[in-house]
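Protein Entry — a single chain follows
Fields — amino acid sequence, structure tokens
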Amino acid sequence: DSKRGSQQIRALRPEEIVKMREVCRIGREVLDEAAKAIKAGVTTDAIDRIVHEACVARGGYPSPLNYRQFQKSCCTSVNEVICHGIPDMYRLKDGDIVNVDVSVYKDGYHSDLNETFLVGQVDAASHHLVKTTYECLMKAIEVCKPGYKYRDLGDIIQRHAHTNNLSVVRAYCGHGINDLFHTAPSIPHYAKSKAVGVMAPGHTFTIEPMINAGVWKETHWPDDWTATTEDGMRSAQFENTIL
């Protein structure tokens, strides 16, 4: 528990990095399996089953399952859902956007990644939102190197989002990840944050900007997990684990 609450950013040893690379490779394969199934008429529950079976088939375990009473193996966030959508019997419709967030645990280490997918024919505003969100992630990844301040990532992400008339969710951050699912550092995606820490060799962390078409503020459903945009407009997200 003391390690879980620590603000110390841990650099992984070479043998740990081998395990992180392997679980991240598996996470990528699992998300790719989910992506193949996404089309109009498919339930988010069906996507969850694919994710669960793909994790197990590769010798892993879905990190979200039973994490703080979360009852599914991945998150599926549709349209105005910002994050932590719980898979259910909702059938994807033509024109939807859906984020699938996959986390895998294997040999003591976690991976974490997600993508937002287009279902059928999607309107131009949604195309713009999803494309810009992906660009926000990639622009942040491009600057990652030893000595770079974690708090400066938010400046890059917010600048690109605002340039494209979109807003940045402030309530959820990127995070350290290793043998702990969530740990230091905390990585806000908005500008001028007070996040502490400097990148160093062996650090492993996520960058996962959530970008909204309307206002940045969120509201929560009574399930204690699902976060949606306050104004009901759409939200997109992309995430990768960085070593």
